Amino acid sequence: MVLYSFYIFDRHTECIYSRRWTPQAAATGGKIPRPVSSSSVTSNGEATTGRKGMSHSDDEKLIFGLVFSLRNMVQKLGGEDDTFLSYRTGEYKLHYYETPTRMKFVMLTDTKQNNLRPYLHQIWANLYVEYVVKNPLAPTEHPGGIGVANEMFERGLEAFITAVLPV
Amino acid sequence: MYGRAKDNKVVFALFIISKAGGLIYNREFHTGMSKLTSNDYLMLAGSFHGMHAITKQLCPAFPVPPPSTTAAGLAPSPFSSRPSGIEVLESSHFRIQCFQTLTGTKFLLFTEPQQPNIDTMMRKIYELYADFVMKNPFYTVEMPIRCEKFDRGLDGFVKVRS
Questions:
Q1: Is B70 in Cβ contact with A62 (below 8 Å)?
Q2: Which of A58, A117, B16, B120 has its CA 20 to 30 A from that of A100?
Q3: Which chain B residues have a beta carbon less than 8 Å from that of A37?
Q4: Can you give the residue range of the structural domain that contains B104?
């Protein structure tokens, strides 16, 4: 299986942890020559070249805005107790888990993956709570991601991913 | 939501969103989703259109175009290598299957999470749309769909299946 990226957002809409497993070139899409004809761009209503020049922090903001709106849409349609789990496109799948304190855990994988929500829950319970929340030196809030990416958490995450999500 | 556990072949609703993001058809087959006003549905369709575009942008690995289209001299196919947006969205109570036609019209099918064979169903609905909406001489493209035959065709199809 392929793991593309992993993000944690706090309740203030800020991305406090992000990690990517994709090579830079693939992320910007600059290497693959993609056929673009002027008629094809307009026929579907969007341009295909808008991707270049997007930084990682733009990506994070887009993902946050997206899961936030999807979550609201799902709750509007299915009622208050309905939760958004995941979505899949032709190229990737996004898994979502939200804690009761409104922290959001997001993981992007390939499309064949089953729902990873239990794993995201485990990352929160066994890694985030253990190594970040219980760390006496970490601040209560994490502006700019301070205190999240400590060594124990990084190592724990690495070990967890290699253990439960075999390549 | 839970009273119908025995027959899990339930299709809640069908939305059709035009390529500009407007809701041009909205039909509920089964109660189960929250009751919303038509204004809310219009807003949801519009925001789904936007989110669909964002999911295309976020694509972490662009699809590699098939070798035949990259060969020099061949006309590049405009559709082969573009990332697709949301195809399936899952929540704990329902599932949204989204099918986008090559011209940008989106079909949204709201079903139970365990519903099988949504792809064939979508294909059939697209067929009905092509037959009774697009071939209707009185239908203006991009405008709300009011075609009785399409309604009846959908009814027959969805009811027979569930």
A1: no
A2: A58
A3: 76, 78
A4: 11-59+79-161
